Amino acid sequence: MTQDELKQAVARAALAHVVEGRIVGVGTGSTANFFIDALAGIKDRIAGAVASSESTRQRLESHGIRVFDLNEVDDLPVYIDGADEITVEMHMTKGGGGALTREKIVAAVAQKFVCIVDESKLVPVLGRFPLPVEVIPLARAYVARELVRLGGEPRLREGFVTDNGNLILDVHGLSIVDPEALEARITQIAGVVACGLFARRPADICLLGGSAGVRTLSA
Ligand SMILES: O=C[C@H](O)[C@H](O)[C@H](O)COP(=O)(O)O
């Protein structure tokens, strides 16, 4: 199977976690896009969706799925999204598409986070994928210096502006031995909006697509 076929398989499997008659939280990226396309097939059985990015909002709406503002939603049973890396502890690196901040907010509201990935994303330790950090433009240089002090090599994502009007520093070479501590440490730097580590709010389950089919993992 190709990587896209594996992504499609986990996206379809995620439909089983959508709660009928309720709003579903929807992530961003190529795997989430396959999920949106699958969700269109059951759109009459859900109340609508909340989107973690403008691109996701547009894709949902193009399928005729009603998109709610998160501020209108006080109870979200499930959030479904991809990841750039995930461990068996359900810790993730996210933000390859630059949507990490809104993803983190929607994930925080949701009762359950279902991560959908192909098997190439499962890693023993996070860190091969550069860690995205969203920063306020004014703080770019300061935050970059602080990230160097933490042992990383931050690189500005050239020509990219987030949905929130901010910049992304992709941090290479970090040793992520304690993801929760590092997430807290980076988030505390003045000017950081969010860091792409999802360890303090890990996934609840992971649907992992491989050549033998879709496996369900949980911590
Ligand atoms: O900002 C983007 C998100 O965190 C994505 O969920 C992540 O980059 C994975 O994307 P893809 O499914 O395209 O590999």
Could you explain how this protein is built, in words?
This protein has 219 residues and is an alpha/beta fold. It folds into 2 domains: 3-123 and 200-217, Rossmann fold, CATH 3.40.50; 131-196, ACT domain (Alpha-Beta Plaits, 2-Layer Sandwich), CATH 3.30.70. The protein is 27% helix and 27% strand. The protein contains 6 helices and 13 strands. The protein has helices at residues 3-14, 30-39, 54-62, 100-109, 140-149, 179-187, and strands spanning 23-26, 48-51, 76-81, 85-86, 92-93, 110-118, 131-135, 153-156, 167-172, 192-195, 197-198, 205-210, 213-217. The strands form 3 sheets. A 6-stranded mixed β-sheet has the order 2-1-3-6-12-13. The protein has a 4-stranded antiparallel β-sheet with strand order 8-9-7-10. Strands 4-5-11 form a 3-stranded antiparallel β-sheet, with helices on one face. The longest helix is centred in the first third of the chain and has 12 residues, at 3-14. The model has no long low-confidence stretch (mean pLDDT 97). Ribose-5-phosphate binds next to helix 2 and helix 4. Its EC number is 5.3.1.6. This is Ribose-5-phosphate isomerase A. Pathway: Carbohydrate degradation; pentose phosphate pathway; D-ribose 5-phosphate from D-ribulose 5-phosphate (non-oxidative stage): step 1/1. Substrate binds at residues 28-31, 81-84, 94-97, 121. Pfam families: Rib_5-P_isom_A.
